[in-house]
Structure formats: structure tokens, C-alpha cells
Amino acid sequence: MSTKTKGVIAILGASLMWAIEAHLLKLADNAGAHYLETFTFRAIGVAVTALVYVLMTRPAKLRITRPQFLLILYIALAGTMVADLLYVYALGEIPVINAVLIGHMQPIWVVLVGYFVLREDKLTRHDYLGIGIMIVAALLVATKTPANLRALKLGSLGDLLVLIATVAWATTGIVMRKYLRQLDAGVLAFYRFAIASAVFLAYVLTASHLALSSVYQILVGVVVGIGFILYYEGLKRIKAAQVSALELSTPLFAVLLSFLIPTERIAVMQLFGVVMLIVGVHFLSRKEEVYF
Description:
By secondary structure, the protein is mostly helical. The chain has one domain. 76% of the residues lie in helices and 0% in strands. The longest helix has 28 residues. The mean pLDDT is 80.
């Protein structure tokens, strides 16, 4: 199995975890859990899951340098304490499909920012074609019908918050890809969420108290922990823009999971979107020597 194929599989696995996360967050919100408490339990759960992964795999390098710590600190601040918190809050305000669709439109921002920062990650014609197909597919999966697609408006506060989170996530992915590729995935995930856990645990305990309102608050931490480990493993193996485009499979998984939590009928246009997502993954997985 090639390095690129392993990377594609890892990111698709992470995408499944993101879809499960969105439903678990919605279930926690429906159970009456406060979003700050859910976020805190989520961060702690990810840190613990990452630590277990580190203990099981025993990577050669556990220590990090000062420059690496500063970069991880940025990822923790922008990617977790800002972006993740906005996402957890917004999921209480907007439908799951809206959140995962907007939250996984990162290729646009990765390509724009990465063009100036990740010049070594040159994209091929197949990469651009795959990204374009998957963006269209994600819109079809999320909107369900031609009428909904024509009337698509991303104007609510919740939508805007997820969009801000998406831009922040894109910058952290680029930072990781450019400067932290050699760092173990479990070590990176642990430090990122341990920092966020310490800050928000102190805040929640000071402001009020930390109460577990739902088992979903625990489950979401484990799921997200697995997702981030897969995400970082994939980001080491394939381009940042490819990673973000592959994450567009999350709306597909979210729709499929809606059969279980709760049951939802899939429209014909969504099925067409599923096919387009598969085609997009195919193009992203192809090799090509001529770069744009």
C-alpha cells in the first residue's frame, strides 16, 4: 500500500469520526448539556485518548522543542480554543448537515493560504479536479433538492461562526503540514488538547462547576481523539489541500448516520452527490507528474 493511499484511508477514517462527532454534539445539546461543559469534556477526552495512543505506540520522540511548543500553542489556541469552541456552540444553533458542510469547506482556504505558504505542496490537475468535484458533491448532499440548492443561504449566526472556525482550522492544518510533520500524531494531539483542557477546566471550575450531563460528552472526546490521530497521520502523508478535500466526505457520512440518529430519508440529489464524492476521491488518489 502506497504512502498516499494510507493517507487517503486515514483522512476518510477521520472524516467518519467528524460526522459521528457532530451527531454526538447534537445529542448532548438535546440532552441539556451546556456547550462549555461539553467542550471541556471533549478536550479532556481527546487528550486522554491521544495519551493512550502514545503509550501503546511508544514513539521514539516524546519531547518537543521550544519552537515546536510555540507552534502547537498556536494550533491549540486557533484550532481548539477558538475554532472547536465556536463549532461546538454553533451545533446547538444549526442543523448537523449545515455545520459539517460549512466546517469542511476548508479546501478553498487551504488552497488560497497554502498557495503562498505551502509552495512545496504543488497541486496537480487531478487534485484541482477532485477538489472541485467534492465541493459540488458536498453541496448536493447537504441541500438535498434543486430548490434548496438555489435558495442556499449561509447567513445565520451559527453558519458564520462555523465559517470562522473553518478558516482557523485551515491555518492550523497548514502550520502542521509545513512545520510539524515529523512529530508523532499522538504527541501532537495530546499537547494540543492538554493545553485547551487545562485552560477551560480552570475556567469552568472557577466560573461554576463541571457537571457531566450526558454520556455523549464523554463519547465525543474519544471519537474526536481517534479522528485527530487519523487526521495527523494522514496529513503527514498527503498534501494539505488533498486532506481538506477528502474531509468533504464528512457530509456524506453525516447523512448516512442520520438514518440512525435520527432516521432521515436520502434524496435523489444526495445519492448523486455520493457518487460525485467517490469520483472526487478517485481523482485525488491518482498520481500525475505535470503540476499547475
